[in-house]
């Protein structure tokens, strides 16, 4: 018996239908690629004209332009997210200040006059922003900077603690 080459054995099992179908499948794949590149070309044509107004648009140029455009878009999104996070901290600070003002307003209208009521009222009044100072930040936030004048309580004793 003569030795058989493995490559030949693999080709022998292909049916005639498979041999005919393979070029058609490959043509469909190339058509999909070309259609997608044409869609990219139409989407990026204003951008392409800015950078290369007089050159012919080849497939590789269109793909490079798409990659470049997506990278710059990604950087813009990251910068926008960073600015949203930064403004979110300011919004949290503003919300904290508003909450303190509401608590002081509520406690000033309240008729109950216990020691806890007075301590809470004094504590919240001390947290309210004055006209010359910036608005306070929540105690856990990165913007929180406790002032040195709050080291002792309003009554000169120890700090009031809610626990």
From TrEMBL:
Gene Ontology BP, a term: animal organ development
Stretches of the chain forming a coiled coil according to its record: none
Primary residence: nucleus
Subcellular location: Nucleus
One term under GO cellular component: nucleus
Region named Disordered: 130-163
Record keywords, A-Z: Developmental protein, Differentiation, DNA-binding, Neurogenesis, Nucleus, Repressor, Transcription, Transcription regulation
GO MF annotation list: DNA binding; protein dimerization activity
Domain BHLH: 17-73
All residue ranges annotated as the Orange domain in the record: 92-124
Biological role: Transcriptional repressor of genes that require a bHLH protein for their transcription. Plays an important role as neurogenesis negative regulator.
Name of the protein in its database record: Transcription factor HES-5
Species of provenance: Iconisemion striatum
